[in-house]
């Protein structure tokens, strides 16, 4: 299942089945994003992988922020 999440100033397309995410575009209404929704979305993709076109992989690390 894929969904679009708002995190900070961006939209990310998230695939919960594959545990991956990719940049989907800029969130122009980022100032309207509540802190609660932002934090929940960050926790949701914690540990998910982003694979770049050149093959590099980045793991989202929410950590203690």
Describe this structure in words.
The chain has 65 residues and is an alpha+beta fold. It has one domain. It is 15% helix and 38% strand. The protein is built from one helix and five strands, in the order βββαββ. The protein has one helix at 35-44; strands at residues 2-7, 10-15, 20-26, 49-51, 57-59. A three-stranded antiparallel beta sheet has the order 1-2-3. A two-stranded antiparallel ribbon has the order 4-5. The longest helix is centred in the middle third of the chain and has 10 residues, at 35-44. The chain is globular.
Number of strands: 5
Largest sheet: 3 strands, antiparallel
What's the shape? globular
Tally of distinct domains: 1
Q: Structural class of the secondary structure composition?
A: alpha+beta
Mean pLDDT: 94
Strand content: 35-45%
Features:
1 helix; alpha+beta; single chain; 65 residues
Summarize this structure briefly.
With 65 residues, the protein is an alpha+beta fold.
Topology:
Layout: E1 2-7, E2 10-15, E3 20-26, H1 35-44, E4 49-51, E5 57-59
